[in-house]
Amino acid sequence: MPQPDATVFSAAERETLYRIIAARRDIRHFLTNEKIDDAVLGRIMAAAHSAPSVGLMQPWRFIRIKDKPLRNDIARLVDEEIRRTADAMNERRREFLKLKVAGIRECAELIAVVQAPDDGTLFGRRTLPREMALCSTACAIQNLWLAARAENLGMGWVSLFEPAALARLLHCPQGAQPVALLCLGPVKAFYAKPMLVETGWREEKTLERVLFSDKWPENEE
Ligand SMILES: Cc1cc2nc3c(=O)[nH]c(=O)nc-3n(C[C@H](O)[C@H](O)[C@H](O)COP(=O)(O)O)c2cc1C
How far, in Å, is the centroid of ligand 1 from the Cα of 2? Predict the structure, then answer.
């Protein structure tokens, strides 16, 4: 009997991948007092680390926050930034403060993603060095996000923090910059739509609105 070609995906496998992509959500509500099985976390982190990166520089570093007082310090940093963001919002301040924008204290695992100091890679990043390194790290985070969803775990990307202050808390070397706090863990339910849509904060753009042919259309922002 011929063996199936492991490099070719079936319609059912494709369907599963698209379902996972569609069902991924940014999660801010987690079940408390939960843990993630080591094997599951291992698979998720391996998925993150298999991301593409410019010139294969793999500029991501992941720091698992295991220490409780450290997690509390990080949560306070995020609270401070939430207040600053709200103050910068003027008329939407109160509405913003009603949103839940992080689950740092409740999530099972907190992982800081740090952009490593620039290793001087030139391949593919002569013109946009900072952006291409950052895009590579974003690819790793997206892999992690999808793998977490496939494991039926929620993930929330929190970017509300002062990077220099977080770098100090994490003892990052000169040139390293935290870019994400990832809240990971079991959830009661996955939101059906982005939470910012569900709460009426913002509407989603359709694919048609962002997919152009040949040139940027006139009268398009
Ligand atoms: C780079 C990045 C930073 C984000 N930072 C935050 C954040 O600090 N707090 C938050 O509540 N959501 C954050 N989000 C989540 C977005 O609000 C969310 O992805 C968007 O509303 C779409 O919802 P969905 O991910 O459920 O499809 C961030 C997402 C990205 C990609």
Answer: 45
Q: Which residues pair with 8 in a beta bridge?
A: none
pLDDT tens across 164-201, in order? 999 999 999 999 999 999 999 999 999 999 999 999 99
| CA-derived radius of gyration, the chain | 19
Centre of ligand 1 to C-alpha 96, Å, is: 14
Query: Does a structural domain hold residue 196?
Result: no
Whether residue 202 lies inside any domain: the answer is no
Q: Residues lining ligand 1, judged by CB closer than 6 Å?
A: 25-26, 28, 101-102, 157-160, 194, 196
Coil vs helix vs strand at 196: helix
Index of the ligand 1 atom closest to the CA of residue 100 = 11
Query: Whole domain around residue 102: which residue ranges?
Result: 25-188
CATH of the domain at 91: 3.40.109.10
pLDDT at 168: 98
